[in-house]
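Subject: complex prediction, re-run

Hi both,

The earlier run crashed halfway through, so I resubmitted it with identical inputs.
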Amino acid sequence: MPELPEVEVTRLSFASRIAGARVLAMHMGKPLRWPLGVPPALLVGQSVMGVRRRGKYLLLDMDRGVLMLHLGMSGSLNFAPSQIEAGKNDHMDLVTTQGVLRLHDPRRFGAAVWSDSETDEPAAKLLGKLGMEPLTEGFELKLCQQGLKKRAAPIKQVLLAGDVVVGVGNIYASEALFMSGIRPTVKANKLSAPRVAKLHAAIRQVLARAVEQGGSSLKDFVNAQGNTGYFQLEASVYGRAGLPCRTCSTPIKQIVQGQRSTFFCPVCQKH
DNA sequence: CCATATACCTGGCAGC
DNA sequence: TGCTGCCAGGTATATG
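This time it finished cleanly. Structure:
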């Protein structure tokens, strides 16, 4: 569910409401991807200074460290004024003076991890190899070209790997490649500079637009206020196998790359 | 170092 | 209705 836009929309939907809140209690349900790494009681009494995002991680800055949250494939957050009874897929409650932050995640590929600081383990290890943030000034075309030049893997898989640019997941990778007219199977290091420039712009555009739209509503995305997004309404290729390309009417193709589905138009994305 | 495969886990859906 | 098999937004880790 959550790629960069969904994570960012989630962040925006509760960051200002939780800022300044003091933790009253923390409850953990079934195990997530990694152990929290700290007894929940140690969170009690600390305040939430703010919420940042790095790639698809949400970073809750606390008095004495950072609580890192990841939504995995099926996670979502809810920030409600008061506590409601937890369902079987609710695996973390952070009860604060300003509301309850709840992590809901059926598949449990998500995570809640404590780190004494962003430069300590485990944060350093999890965040250390992440690529550029696509919606910041730091996402420079030149660095993008340099990064791709070193990679012989198909461009789609390089985008997903997240070590050149973060936040582009399986949906937006297909969408960005369609926007820039690039076939997903092309080796990253074979792309000409002008084509990388197109891709660079497309990544920015598709992610920024999805954030504006409130995130993807594919399947069941909701932000921390329970609102759905609208991106699904305008997907160009993702999930449209066999349907006519919105540009040229050629049936959209679906292939598998690195055990993930990829969608593209064989005519608009010739090479 | 790089590219690719594997593992984690549940729920929804198509097809029978 | 109920079963089976397939598929799903991510990414650390293992393997070649």
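Residues 33, 72-74, 89, 105-109, 150-153, 157, 161, 219, 258-259 of chain A lie near DNA strand B (CB under 10 Å from a C1').

- K.
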